[in-house]
Amino acid sequence: MIFMLYLLRVAFKVNDNLTTVSGPAMFGTESSLSMFLNTLTPKFYVALTGTSSLISGLILIFEWWYFRKYGTSFIEQVSVSHLRPLLGGVDNASPSNSSPSNGDTDSSRQSVSECKVWRNPLNLFRGAEYNRYTWVTGREPLTYYDMNLSAQDHQTFFTCDSDHLRPADAIMQKAWRERNPQARVSAAHEALELEDCATAYILLAEEEATTIVEAEKLFKQALKAGEGCYRRSQQLQHHGAQYEAQHRRDTNVLVYIKRRLAMCSRKLGRTREAVKMMRDLMKEFPLLSMFNIHENLLESLLELQAYADVQAVLAKYDDISLPKSATICYTAALLKARGVSDKFSPEAASRRGLSTAEMNAVEAIHRAVEFNPHVPKYLLEMKSLILPPEHILKRGDSEAIAYAFFHLQHWKRVEGALNLLHCTWEGTFRMIPYPLEKGHLFYPYPICTETADRELLPMFHEVSVYPKKELPFFILFTAGLCSFTAMLALLTHQFPELMGVFAKAFLSTLFAPLNFIMEKVESILPSSLWHQLTRI
Question: For 92-110, how does the pLDDT look when each residue is reduced to its tens digit (9 = 90+)?
Answer without folding.
Answer: 433 333 333 444 444 443 4
